[in-house]
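Input chain follows. Return structure tokens only.
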Amino acid sequence: MPTLPDTFACFLVQKSGKDQVTTSVERRPTHELPQGDIVVRVQYSSLNFKDAMAAMGHPGVAKRFPHVPGIDAAGVVASSGDTRFREGDEVIVTGRGLGSDTWGGWSEFIRVPADWVVARPQGLSLREAMIIGTAGFTAAQSVWQLQRHEVTPNRGPIIVTGATGGVGILAVKLLAKLGYEVHASSGKADARDWLIANGAAQVLGRDEVNDRGNRPLLSARWAGAVDTVGGPILGTVLRSIRHRGCVTCCGLTAGSDLPVTVYPFILRGVTLQGIDSAECPDEPRREIWRLLSSDWKLDNLDAITTEVTWSGLPQQIELIFHGRVRGRTLVRQ
């Protein structure tokens, strides 16, 4: 088995007292890497809202400190204790407990259980896989569920909420590629041209998808939805879905309460489908990555990507908390 270096570099979050959180790039002893079968030399990671929360010391995300964020990682196997992977294999790890339960991808190395590791899908480079990352995997799961519920392009338009975020913009691009008419909702008025350039047929302001009335049903506008924000916007969308439509739900930036009655479900047969990317089972996980590298492969990913190194992460974390990050942030080691 290859010998690993005695130390490794990482972006470390430390917490002292109740609220004192500091971040720094440090070298740590390699024996501090978590237990696992596979050691990966990381080449790329990404910045997700969950990573930003971990970097701010949020106890619901980072369970113990010090902590290394990064729920996505792509790189080359440096050491393997499992026959499914060999030294030099290119692999990706997304979700599971990476960057939350255990140290994550903002690191020179990660060590993880072999069951967390997916061979790099043919047709995707490691860089492309990390631009997609958990956000794109979540978007693809959402589209996959729409199709499983027979929401096809001829059924009508699909609304994507929070469309300028990582999940949102990748959902817009993927739905457009597959022939859907995409209506993109965003609170960023200056993003209209960008959303249209990435596949949106219509762009709606946030207030246009946030009905504050108490009517149990609204005019049926959309065949389905990819909702990334939750709260009253999700409630509005559910009340506006056509008969037998499906709404996928994967976020709560607009709130965790759901102001809706049972009427959309019992009168229009609407399905509300939750999307849990972290613990997606192996079989659909590999199938969705296969699709993303073949029939669902997205073009021009650089148009939605900001690339940074660890030194640029503090600024990007600040921006993401103020809702000023558009698209995906790729983290290059």
